[in-house]
Amino acid sequence: MDQFNRICLVLIVVFLAVIALRPVILPQPAHAAPVHKYIAVHTGTDGSSPTIQATLDKYASDGWDLIAAIPVAEASSSPILIFQQ
């Protein structure tokens, strides 16, 4: 092989090595996944607490999604509502 072909091959190898090693030397920053917010609301049955429907309407209008309703051991008590935003 003559001198020109060797220089071209060396340049190709060097450029491919630069492309291959760039992520190792200068890695891209990692971005965290979006974090969800959670809230638990207990709607009691006494007159001072809002009703379940009023609570659902309030949090739905604020952009919260209902993901669970956990029953409480007391038969007369309303469930605990879990919302996610």
Tell me about this structure:
- The structure is a single chain.
- The chain contains two helices and three strands.
- The radius of gyration is 31 Å and the shape is rod-shaped.
- It is of the alpha+beta class.
- The chain has a three-stranded antiparallel beta sheet with strand order 1-3-2, with helices on one face.
- It starts with a helix and ends with a strand.
Number of helices: 2
Give the SSE order as H and E letters. Answer: HEHEE
In percent, how much strand structure appears in the residues?
A: 15-25%
Overall pLDDT score: 85
Based on helices, strands and strand pairing, what is the structural class? Answer: alpha+beta
User: Radius of gyration in whole Å, from Cα?
Assistant: 31 Å
The largest beta-sheet arranges its strands as 1-3-2
Query: Into which percent range does the helicity of residues fall?
Result: 25-40%
Report the major sheet.
Answer: 3 strands, antiparallel
Describe this structure in a few short sentences.
With 85 residues, this protein is an alpha+beta fold. It has two helices and three strands.
Summarize the SSE layout with pairings:
Layout: H1 3-25, E1 38-42, H2 52-61, E2 65-70, E3 80-84
Antiparallel strand pairs: 1-3, 2-3
